Amino acid sequence: MEEKEEIRKIQFTGKSSYIVSLPKQWILELGLKQGDQVRMKRKDSSTLEIHPSKFETRSEKEEATIEISDEETSSIVRKLISLYFLGYKIINIKSKTGRLDPNQRNTIKKSVKKMLMGSEIISDSNTGITIQVLVNLLDLSINGAFKRMFNLAISMSNDSILAMSENNLEIAQEVINTDDEVDRFGFYIIRQLEIAIQNEYMLKEMGFKNARDCLGYRLIVKNIERTGDHAVLIANDIIEFKNPIKKEIVEKIQEMHKFALSVLDDSCVALFIENYTLAEKTIVKAREITKYEKKVKDVSKSLKDDEEIYRIRRIMENISRVSEYASDIAEIVLNMNIEKLLKKTA
Length: 346
Fold this sequence. Notes:
Blueprint: E1 11-13, E2 17-19, H1 24-30, E3 38-44, E4 47-52, H2 53-57, E5 61-68, H3 74-85, E6 88-95, H4 102-115, E7 119-125, E8 128-133, H5 142-166, H6 169-198, H7 200-205, H8 211-241, H9 247-273, H10 276-286, H11 289-299, H12 306-345
Parallel strand pairs: 5-6
Antiparallel strand pairs: 1-2, 3-4, 6-8, 7-8
Helix pairs in contact: 3-4, 5-6, 5-8, 5-9, 6-8, 8-12, 9-10, 9-11, 9-12, 10-12, 11-12
């Protein structure tokens, strides 16, 4: 939205107060009226902010209730996640027949624990379950949550390659277990983005210039989630096949993986510092993954076992995807920062 500016005089009234009038057009555009409250904040030595209080109350929706049939199980989770994304603070789940079966109750409880960050079950009975989202919108910023999510995904990816190099089934299983934590951060960020898109006040509080950037961030979060998913696929391969991979092949895979993560790191640095040039360089750099793919293929030529050839090919594919996601993130960063570049050249 275009920023507007007006100059108004400060006037003295009574014995201890100063007043300043607000433009009528602004009041009409914001849907305010006489008697509405505004919140005033002094940010530093030279800045005052005024925020309409009614926008803050719209940031989260209060309560939602859904009724489910006896046949529903997996669909309950989808409905629960959707309501979480929409920003409800209280979610009631009830049965259409008056009683939830034990399987439904367990599914709901596991979903809250594994997927919905900041949520707790405050009421649990065979007639229904009530979930409350306790986390404050600004307790954990989107950038803060994203950095934690990113670090977890990177850790998972590194551990999956470590598990491969050592043929360590315990580390591989830990990678699989960590995936839920990455998803929790992803769901939390998407919830915040949904709220920000609907509320201009929250949009600014969360540090976004416009609603379009929220869409870009959502796509970026999805790419980080997929990075974790590919680490899980590598870990599953180790657990499924159990046989170690030849040392010389492992070394080339490690080189390829290190490069892919360096590209992903560059793309996220470009995101945080809003650097168009770095994003461009990252896209070009990502194409170099083919050089590392060739090195792995060259040392794998002597393999005779079809199963082992298939495993190497699949691990390579999972690593290559990480480089592709890094390039996708860099593309989004370009779109988010192109206007800044135009201002420099204008």
